[in-house]
Amino acid sequence: MGKRGLILCGTLLALVLASYRTGFAQVAWQQVLNFIALEGKPVAASPARLSEHEIQELDRMTPQQQAVLLLERATNHYDGAIEWIDKKVDSWRGSIKLDGQLNTLFTSALNSNDLRVRAAAIEVDLAVYNVEKTAESANSRMQALESGEGDRVTHLWILGLLGNRGIEPDRVFQVLFQYAHDPDIHIRYWAVEGLAYLGTDTTIQALLDIFRNDSSANIRERAACGLAQSGMLQQSQRMKAVPALLTYLEDPTFDAASHQWVIQALQDISGQGIGDDPGAWRRWYAGR
After folding, report:
1. Residue 94 gets which letter from DSSP?
2. pLDDT of residue 55
3. Helix-, strand-, coil-residue percentages of the chain, each rounded to 5
4. Radius of gyration (Cα) for the chain, nearest Å?
5. 195 burial level (CB within 10 Å; 0-12, 13-18, 19+)
6. Fewer CB atoms inside 10 Å of the end CB: C or N, the chain?
7. What is the pLDDT of residue 11?
C-alpha cells in the first residue's frame, strides 16, 4: 500500500472513531463486533435442546456425570433434560453425591422459577439419599422420628420431598405440622421447610398460622418465604394466601420486620410493586 493509501486509511479510521459517539455509529460498530448488550430480550446461543451427541454420551458417563449434565441442562430449560432425569434418576440411587458441581446445580435448580426444574432437583436429592418413592420409605422416616433414631432434620426434609412426589402426602402433612410446633427451634425450622416443599393446599393455612404465631422471627420468615416464593406451591395456590396476608398487612400487632415480610410476600406472589398501602393492595386484589 502506498503512502497515499496509508493516509486515506488513517483518515477513514479517524473519521470512524470520531463518529463512534453518535448512536448510529455505535450500533454499527456493535454489530461488527457481535457485541451483546445487557439490556433487551434474551439472545439464544443455540437451540435449547439436548443434542444427539449429548444423549449418546450419557451411557458412557458415570451416574454423577449424568446427574451434573442433565441438571445443568434442566436448569437452563433445555428441552428433554427433565425427561432424561426422569428416565435415569432411579439408576442414580446410592451412586451420586451432593458435592462439588452437583451441589451448586442442585441449589440453583431448587431456586428455579420453573417448578418442573425444582421437581427435578427433588428427584435428584432423593437419589442422593438413596430413598425410594414408596409408602414404606415414608413410614420408616415417620417411625424414626417417633423413636428418636437418626437425624430428625433429615427425616423431616425427606418426608417433605416424598410427600411432594405423591407419597402419603396427607400423612406427611400431619407429621410435619406436628413437628412445626416442636419446642426445638431447629426442628420447627425444618418442619416448616418440609411443609413448603410438600406444596399441597393444606400447607397454605398451616404456613399462614406459623407466620402469624411462631415465637421465632427466623421461622416466621421461612413460613413467609414458603408462601411467597420458595418451596413447591404453584402460583394459583400462593394466591389463596393473599386474603390473609392483606389482613396481616393491617394488623397493628405485627412488628416492623414481619410487616415488611408481608409486603414482600404480596409483591412476590402478585408481581406488583404497590408498597405498603393496604387500600391499594385491596383494590388490586378486587380488580385482578
Report:
1. T
2. 87
3. 70, 0, 30
4. 26
5. buried
6. N
7. 53
Question: What pLDDT shows up at residue 84?
Answer: 96
- The H or E element spanning position 185 is helix 185-198
**What is the structure's pLDDT at 259?**
95
In the numeric block, which cell numbers belong to residue 248?
396481616
Q: Contact, 106 vs 127, CB < 8 A?
A: no
Task: Say what the pLDDT of residue 22 is.
Answer: 56
Q: What is the pLDDT of residue 17?
A: 53
Q: φ, ψ for residue 22 (rounded to 5)?
A: -75, 150
Domains parsed from the chain with CATH numbers = 52-128 (no CATH), 135-287 (1.25.10.10)
Cα separation, 64 vs 95, whole angstroms = 7
Per-residue exposure over 48-68, b if at least 16 CB sit within 10 Å of its own CB, e if not: eebeeebeeeeeeeebbebbb
C-alpha–C-alpha distance, residues 128 and 117, integer Å: 17
DSSP letter at 120? H
Give the pLDDT means over successive 10-residue stretches in the chain (288 positions): 51 51 55 71 75 88 97 95 97 96 98 97 98 98 96 98 98 98 98 98 98 97 97 98 97 94 97 94 94
Nearest partner of 186 among 225, 149, 138, 151, judged by Cα:
151
Q: How far apart are CA 22 and CA 250, in angstroms?
A: 53
Distance CA 40, CA 260 (A): 31
pLDDT of residue 166: 98
H or E element in which residue 190 lies: helix 185-198
Q: What is the pLDDT of residue 288?
A: 87
Output the pTM of the full model. 0.85
